[in-house]
Amino acid sequence: MLSAERLSSGMNCSCSSSSSQCGPHLCGSGSSIGCSSRCRLTHRRAHSRGGASIVMVQCARAPSPDQEGAAAAAAASIAVSQSHSKSLVQTLVSQSVSTNGAGTNKVPTVDIASAATAGVLETDGGSTRTQFVAETLLPTRHGKLRLRGYKHSVDGGLTYTEPTAIIAGNVEGREDVPVRVHDACYTSEVLGSLKCDCADQLNLALDMITDNPPGMVIYLQQEGRGIGLANKIAAYALQEEGLDTVDANRALGLPDDCREYTSVRNILLGLGIKSVQLITNNPRKINELKSLGLCISGRIPCIADTCNEHNEEYLQAKQARMNHLLEERQSCFWNHEGEPALPSIATQAKQKGIRTGIQVPDLSPAASNSPTIPFNGGNGAVQSSQQQQQQQKQKQ
Ligand SMILES: Nc1nc2c(ncn2[C@@H]2O[C@H](COP(=O)(O)OP(=O)(O)OP(=O)(O)O)[C@@H](O)[C@H]2O)c(=O)[nH]1
């Protein structure tokens, strides 16, 4: 069972979730406001905590079980929260009730205008902000998922991206929540490109959280590791000439990776999540999130096991040059002794007979054509191609 409880038992937290070392996670206790079941009447509650904020929830009509779940989830997630050090506040987008036609159908609508000033989580003096807009319950091929929309700006609102939090179950106020922070990959997720493993990783994570709630995927519009889609296409063009994924960026004068994760921090804080088990193979991502003050209590490998002729070199480059932990048995980022390695999500799913849509190869030592790439490092440093060549020569 790939549950947070099971996983947490095998992982050492780098910091205690109850200690201040973990940074400013929010205390969700007592701050959530739940919409009572079978709520028929307009219900409005104001809640103030620590001089923080006001939450208003309105339910216009009796919900169906699904709607009720969504409303309850939305209401539960509307936590008035407070950081240990300064005011990090999530307020609900205030909802107004508009009438439809003869006024018999009351339809709750999101008041975007008030959302511009409410629902803002700030991380600094004001230039970085993440604003919660709305939540819905989305039926998907993975199951029903809560989808929360945000607007995130790092320049005081001049420009913004739209992160989403895709949630299975109730994550509010919890510790050790399995979370995947996933960056957009138009080429694989929309066009079905075989050049990378991004879409497969997304599907794995969504299957994992729906099969083992609670859990969440935070989806960020940071295409091409932050360089943008057109630049990524330019990088692909250079890769056709023989450059690898890192050198192609450099040849364009672009950074290897310029993703920023302040929205992740804000979203997690807003939900009162105290610590996360990060679903990733990327040590840099873990370090970046830790440096934002988040408590990463463990790592869940996300190995799609879909090596093919088009992505083999790409995966090798990710492992050798960006230190991704892609070896099946190199499962845990944290250096705690004596822990048994956790198999990848795909393999665990296979063992449990859960469908993932991902073909899982036989990784037993007996299997001669295992596509798993041997692990050869993991210190977080990116290697240059010169370093790689030197290493290869030394091996020879
Ligand atoms: N610049 C560039 N970006 C790529 C390339 N292939 C995929 N991407 C982008 O890489 C991002 C995903 O980053 P990865 O480094 O593959 O993986 P990660 O998310 O850092 O690590 P995991 O959490 O383990 O998946 C997505 O935004 C993709 O659009 C490429 O060849 N060049």
TrEMBL record:
<feature type="compositionally biased region" description="Low complexity">
    <location>
        <begin position="383"/>
        <end position="396"/>
    </location>
</feature>
<protein>
    <recommendedName>
        <fullName>GTP cyclohydrolase II</fullName>
        <ecNumber>3.5.4.25</ecNumber>
    </recommendedName>
</protein>
<dbReference type="InterPro" id="IPR032677">
    <property type="entry name" value="GTP_cyclohydro_II"/>
</dbReference>
<keyword id="KW-0342">GTP-binding</keyword>
<dbReference type="Pfam" id="PF00925">
    <property type="entry name" value="GTP_cyclohydro2"/>
</dbReference>
<keyword id="KW-0378">Hydrolase</keyword>
<keyword id="KW-0686">Riboflavin biosynthesis</keyword>
<keyword id="KW-0547">Nucleotide-binding</keyword>
<comment type="pathway">
    <text>Cofactor biosynthesis; riboflavin biosynthesis.</text>
</comment>
<comment type="similarity">
    <text>In the C-terminal section; belongs to the GTP cyclohydrolase II family.</text>
</comment>
<feature type="region of interest" description="Disordered">
    <location>
        <begin position="358"/>
        <end position="396"/>
    </location>
</feature>
<dbReference type="InterPro" id="IPR000926">
    <property type="entry name" value="RibA"/>
</dbReference>
<dbReference type="InterPro" id="IPR036144">
    <property type="entry name" value="RibA-like_sf"/>
</dbReference>
<feature type="domain" description="GTP cyclohydrolase II">
    <location>
        <begin position="134"/>
        <end position="301"/>
    </location>
</feature>
